[in-house]
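Below is how a single chain appears once it has passed through the pipeline. First comes the sequence as given, then the structure the pipeline wrote out for it. We keep one example in the README because the format questions we get most often are answered faster by looking than by reading.
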Amino acid sequence: MSRRIPRRTLVLGVSALVVALVAACSDDGTRLPQAVGVTVVSGDGQSGTAGSPLPELVVAQVVDKYGDPIARGVYVQILSGDGAFAMAGRRGAGNGVILKSPTLGEAKVQWTLGTSGTQQLRFFAVDTNGDTLNAVASATLASGS
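Resulting structure:
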């Protein structure tokens, strides 16, 4: 003979488990980690030839208040320079084109510089308040390109 668990007890037990799991995933025990910024981790400040990919990937991450990466959507956009970029088989070209990284919390971008002017790549994410968090990577055209 099996003993039935009262429905109210079961619901309360499941609710307590959900609260415990959410607290375990938080940075302060009361809520999920908050995105406070986007940081360019590597590849900023490179120099390259117009129309050619930079030698290193440009990598940006969404970070929490401790500087640790967290899972949020990262978007990439050519801000100036009319270059192009590619990440995970997707390609964006020209100023204003925006692509979302397929990896939560991080974008790894192969950047091809444009032909003239300031070369800038914008990485951004939206926090839980709806505010936009930005980081900009810059590159220069090598002399003679």
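DSSP finds one helix and ten strands in the chain.

See the next section for the split statistics.
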